[in-house]
Amino acid sequence: MGFFTKLWAFRKILIIVLTPLLLLPLPLLIDTKEAQCAYTLFVVAVYWLTEAIPLAVTALIPALMFPLFGIMKSKTVASAYFKDFHLLLIGVVCLATSIEKWNLHKRIALRMVMLVGVNPGWLMLGFMISSAFLSMWLSNTSTAAMVMPIVEAVIQQILNAEAEVNAIQMKTMDGTSNLGLQLDEDEVKRENNTEAVSNGVEHYTVCKIDPEDTSPQRSVPKPEMERKYLSKKDHMMCKGMSLCIAYSCTIGGLSTITGTSTNLIFAEHFNNRYPDCHCINFGTWFVLTFPITIIILILSWVWLHWLYLGFDFSSMFRCAKDKSEKEKASAKIIEDEYKQLGSISNQELVTLVIFILMALLWFTRDPGFVPGWSSLFPQYKGYATDSTAALILGLLFFIIPANMPTNSSCGKKSYLSYTTLITWKEFQSCMPWEIALLVGGGFALAQGTEDSGLSAWVGSKLTPLGSLPIWVTIAVSSLIVTSVTEVASNPATITIFLPILSPLAEAIGVNPLYILIPTTLCTSFAFLLPVANPPNAIVFTYGHLQVIDMVKAGLGVNIIGVLAVMLGVRVWGVPLFDLETYPSWAPPHFIANITGP
Question: Closest by alpha carbon to 493, among 58, 38, 41, 48?
Fold first, then answer.
C-alpha cells in the first residue's frame, strides 16, 4: 500500500515523463508533418486534461515543438499567441475591475433581489437572475464569490428567525421556557457568528475574469458535515439556494461573447479560420443565446425548486401581507445590506455609464438587420471589431479621476494629484494572464494543424459521418464535450475540440456554425462536480452540500442545457445564420475530402 501511495504522490511527474515517451513512436514511425503535429497535439491534450503542468505553461509547448518539427517558424508561432481576443479581454477586464472596485455589482444584485420578493421560491429566482445578469459581464468566479456571502447571510437570518418563532411557540404552549430549545438556539447562533464559511471563499480571487480557466483538480475545503439545521426542510432550502448560485453564474455567461472564455475562444478561432465570415459578433451572438439562457435559467429554477422546495408554487402567489417570519427576516437582511452601501457614488455612476456605452457599442457595431456604426467607415470595412469598442472605453478608466484632485507634499514641494477609477496594479490583479496564454496556445495549435495538413487529413477520415442525420452529429459532439468538461477545464476542452470539429463540418458538407455553436455552449455545462468549475467549488465550501447533491441536481441541469441549446439552434439559429446552407466563406466541400500522406 505504501508503494502505491508514493506512486500516486509522484503521478504528475510520471505523466510528464511518460506521455511524450509513449507517444514518441508516432512521429518516428510516421515521418510526416501531420504525425508530428498530432504528436504535439496529443502531448498538450494529455497535459491539459491531467493538469500535470499548469495550463499556461502547457500552452507554451507548441511554441517549442512546432519550430523543432519544421511545422511553423518561431516568429509565426509567436504571433499566434496574441490576437484580437486579447485586446477584447483587456477592455473587459478594465470594466470588471472598476465594477468590482466600487461595489456596483453588489448594488445591482441586491436591487434585483429586492424587486422579486423574499418568498424562498422568489428569493431563489431573484438570486439566479441577478447572478446570471452579473456573469454576463463579469467572470463567473467573481459573481459567485460576491453573491454567495449575501445568500449565506440571508440563509442564516432565516434559520435564526425560525428558531425564534419555534421558541416563542414552545413557551406559549408550555407556559415556561424550554431550556433544551434555548441551548439548541444558542448553538445555532454561535454557528452563525463563526466565519469559517466565509473564510473558505478567501481561497478564490474575486477579481478573476475567467472562471472556467481554473484547474478542475483544484482542492476544495471539505464541507462542514456537522452543521446544525432545525429541520430537513431548512437543510433542503439551503441546498437549493446554494446550487442556484453555482448554476446561474455559469448559465448567465452563455449569453454574451465576453461572458465566458469558451465563447471568446470560439469567436477568435472561428474568425481566424473563416476570415471571410462576419456573422459572429456581439449582437448576433446575443440574439441567438439570450433566449437559450432564459429557457435554461427558468427550467433550472423549476428543477431546483421541485428538488429542494417542493412542487407547490401556489405559495409564491399568495397575498403579500401574509409574510412569514422567514420572509420578514430575509427582507430585513437584504434591506440592511443595501442600506450599508449608501447612496450611489459618483464612481459608480461613471462606471455604470461606461458599462452601458460599451454594451451599446458592442450591440450596434454591426447588428446585421440595420447598418451599424462601423458602416461610418466604409473604406475600412472589417477593421473595427468588438475589441475596438472595448479598448476605447476601457482606457477611460485610467483617465477619468475617481476623486477631485488633492494637495500632496513631497518634502518642501506640494502639488495636486488625483487617482483614476482604476490603477494599473488593480488591473494587473484582475487580468487573467493564465487564460491569455492558454488561449494563445490554442490558437497556435489550431494554426499548426492547418499548416501541417493535419486538419484536412482528419476531415477526410471523418467524411463517413456525413451519412448520419445532422442532429445526431450535433447531439453526439455536444454530449461528448459536456462529459469531458466535467473533468477538464472549459477553456482546455474547447481548445482541444475546435480544431477537430471544424474540419468535421467541412468534410460532411455542413455549415461549421451548426456544429461549433452548440459544442461551444455545451462546453460550459460543468454542473456535476464541485471541482468542475470555480462557482461550484465556491458554493461547495459553505458546507450545505454533499457531492451527491450536486451530481443529482447537475444531471438535470445538464440535460435541460443540452436540450435548450439544440432547440435554440434549430428553431431560431437556422434562420439567423442560414445554418442549413453550406456557406461560401467556408472551404469548398470537395477540398476537405483529400487523403493525407
Answer: 48
Is the distance from CB of 440 to CB of 81 less than 8 angstroms? yes
pTM, 2 dp: 0.69
Residue 481 Cα distances to 52, 257, 261, angstroms: 21, 19, 15
CB under 8 Å to 571, separation ≥6 — which residues? none
- pLDDT tens, residue by residue, 185-207: 444 343 444 333 333 333 333 45
Mean pLDDT of 540-547: 81
- Rounded Cα distance, 420 and 560, in Å: 44
Distance CA 155, CA 495 (A): 39
Phi, psi angles (nearest 5°) of residue 416? -85, 140
Q: What is the pLDDT of residue 247?
A: 93
Name every residue whose Cβ is closer than 8 Å to that of residue 507 and which is 6 or more positions away in sequence: 459, 460, 462, 463, 465, 466, 592, 593
**What residues pair up with 416 in beta bridges, in sequence order?**
407
For 326-343, letters b (16+ CB in 10 Å) and e give bbebbbebbeebbeeeee
Residue 432's contacts (CB-CB under 8 Å, 6 or more residues apart) are 89, 93, 139, 208, 209, 210, 213, 261
Q: Are residues 262 and 524 in contact, defined by beta-carbon separation less than 8 angstroms?
A: yes
pLDDT tens per residue across span 158-188 = 776 666 656 665 666 655 444 443 434 444 3
C-alpha cell at 438: 492558454
**Whole-angstrom Cα distance, residue 547 to residue 545?**
7
**Which are the contacts of 416, defined by CB distance < 8 A and separation ≥ 6?**
405, 406, 407, 408
